[in-house]
Amino acid sequence: MRGFLTAFALTATQATACDTALLLTIDVSNSIDVAEYRLQTDGMADAVLDAEVSEALIQGQIAVAVMQWSGVGRQEISIPWRQIRTISDVRSFAAEARSMPRAFVMSDTAPGDAIMFALNYMEQAPTCNRQVIDISGDGTPNAGSDTRTAAREAERRGVTINGIAIESMGLAITNFFTRAVITRDGFVITARRHLDYPRAIREKILREVSRIFG
To answer: What distance lies between CA 40 and its chain's CA centroid?
Structure first.
């Protein structure tokens, strides 16, 4: 009987364990206007409310947080860590994301500094099987530290970096993210202009948290 209860307890613990700590970051540098900022926040909210995404978040007991970033010394945690266990948690997170005020305006673009800030904040994450940082952006750096160095530091710490490259023309940003931002185990989703961001973030979050995608 004791063996059965022990096995049951272990199964219950595993069932409620956090699969992934997911830090969602959004670019609020000078290239992002008011409408484009709203596309990012509304896109994030709509993505987590999607039935398939919300189910995957709950099943994985995913821990989520949101960070805004722009230039050197301009990074802010807008939504601190919280674990998604119920549909009420999903709706609460979506409401916060949708109403989140913009942290910075008129600032440079420093993704390397954003990654290092995100890595340090990961130390406060709940205990989960994986740690993932999402970097979204529509431009290459014009300030701050080297993104490649930051990505290598993420690999050293066992943190995955994925990205959304928001393209206005061509594939320049996607290529930059692929070469210099994501980790070797990461991936890049391309958004064709800011209007495509809601589709891209839904696809990315689902890929990150759904067991279907590994």
So the answer is: 12
Query: Strand ranges (DSSP E) for the chain?
Result: 18-27, 63-69, 75-83, 128-137, 160-167, 188-192
The shares of helix, strand and coil residues in the chain, as percent rounded to the nearest 5, are: 50, 25, 30
Residue type, 108: D
Burial status of residue 140 (CB atoms within 10 A of its CB: 0-12, 13-18, 19 or more): middle
Total domains, the chain = 1
Local structure of residue 170 (DSSP, 8 states): T
CA angle in degrees (0–180, nearest 5) for 185-166-193:
145
82, part of any domain: yes
Write out the residue range of the structural domain in which residue 110 sits. 15-213
Tens of pLDDT, residue by residue, the chain (214 residues): 445 333 433 443 444 689 999 999 999 998 888 998 999 999 999 999 999 999 999 999 999 999 999 999 999 999 999 999 999 999 999 999 999 999 999 889 999 999 999 999 999 999 999 999 999 988 887 888 899 999 999 999 999 999 999 987 667 899 999 999 999 999 999 998 888 999 999 999 999 988 544 4
pTM of the model: 0.89
Beta strands in 28-74 (DSSP E): 63-69
Question: What's the N-to-C CA distance of the chain in angstroms?
Answer: 35
CATH number of domain containing 88: 3.40.50.410
Record the tokens describing residue 171, joined without a space. Answer: 């594939």
